[in-house]
Every structure is written in C-alpha cells, then in structure tokens.
Amino acid sequence: MSLVDFDGILLIDKPAGPTSHDIVDIIRNSYRIKKVGHCGTLDPAATGLLTILLGKATKLSEKLMSDDKVYVGSLKLGETTNTYDAEGQIESHKQVPHLSIDTLQEEANKFLGDQMQIPPMVSAIKINGTPLYKLARKGQKVDRKERFIHLYKFIISEYKPPFAWFKIACTKGTYIRSLAHDFGNSLGCGGHLSGLRRTVSGKFKVSNATTLEELTSLSPSDLNKRVIPILKTFSS
After folding, report:
1. Do 173 and 101 share a domain, yes or no?
2. Has 143 been annotated as catalytic?
3. Catalytic: which of 13, 43, 85, 222?
4. If residue 118 lies in a helix (H) or strand (E), which one and from where to where?
C-alpha cells in the first residue's frame, strides 16, 4: 500500500501518444492509489492539461467535467479525414482558395455563441452501450444526436497555407475535431484538425501541471505536495 493518502486534484501535462486512461493507469500503478480518475478525455495525439482526481476527489468528477475549456491548436485546410483529425484516413482533397487571416477570422466569428454540434464517429460516446469509435473501426456510421455547445472565443492567430493556428474557449463537450471539420467545409475546401493542446480547464492551467516525465520520477511524498486539496479547489 502507498505510504501516503492521496485525496485531491493532480494536474498533468499529457504528452502526445498515451491515452488519458493510460495516464490514470500509470498513476494508479506507480503510487498504488486505488481511486484514480480524470476529467475530460484528451485524444492520444492531443497534449495539455489533464485533470486527475485522486481518492475522495473522484466524487467531484461530474462537477469538474462541466467546467469551460481553452484550447490552442492548428488545422489543415484542403484535406478531410474520416476522423476529422490527422490520425484518420484522407477522404478528400480540394484546392485551398486564396485566403487571408482576416478572411479566416471573419469565418471563425460565425461559429461564436450557442450552437448545436454533431459529435464525430470516432468518439467515446456510446450508442446502445457500444462506443462510437468501435463502430467506426468496423466501417459503420450511425446517426448521432446533436449536442448543445457554446464558443466564447475562436481566434485565428496565424495562417501559413494550408495551416491555420487557433485559440478556442468553449463549454464542455465541444469536439474541436468537429469544429475544424465544419470550419473547413464552411470555407469550401474542407479541413481537419492537425494539432491540439488544452491549456485551461475551469480554474486550472497547464502552466501549473506536472509533466509525465516528472510524474514517473517523484516519490509519493513529493507527488502529494503537488496534489491540490479538495477544499482549496472550491475556495475563492
């Protein structure tokens, strides 16, 4: 058993490669913590803030998952994929029209506010108990229910054809892959997400997170110093 009782929130800067569940397993096995969970899944290729819940803090999962998020990333225009990101198979190629960063920003502004979004097939949403991504792997496509989301910010920060870099602030449940796909379609050339990093979730920032390399080298007592107590999480 662990010599330390871990109860609270641990901020991890997830690298590209491992799944969010892989990070949970590493923490559980390395520090012998029975109750470990996370808030808000990041795709394997995505990096950034992963909010880990330890011990009694796992009961806060639903509350913390409802927090707003901030992402930075890039999208590639002129190319669509079946997963809406760079991990999938290319489905179409189209010539990218002459676009300025101002034109891209004008189009991005149209996505601000309340809207309904259709989740991608490659997602963990379950239909009759089966995750969509398992159906997608079999080549199946099913109707998905639209989800209500809200975009506070959609800023195009740089454009070097065919890549555009962005910053997005949004509500929970927003699929940035779907947004990149829809944005590309709105420009008439298609597009997909080429890179993604979560920088903020609620009151937590990735600048305060522990890297995976650091995580695997810390003693239990040193790790516990990085755990945010539950009471501190909800204090003003």
Report:
1. yes
2. no
3. 43
4. none
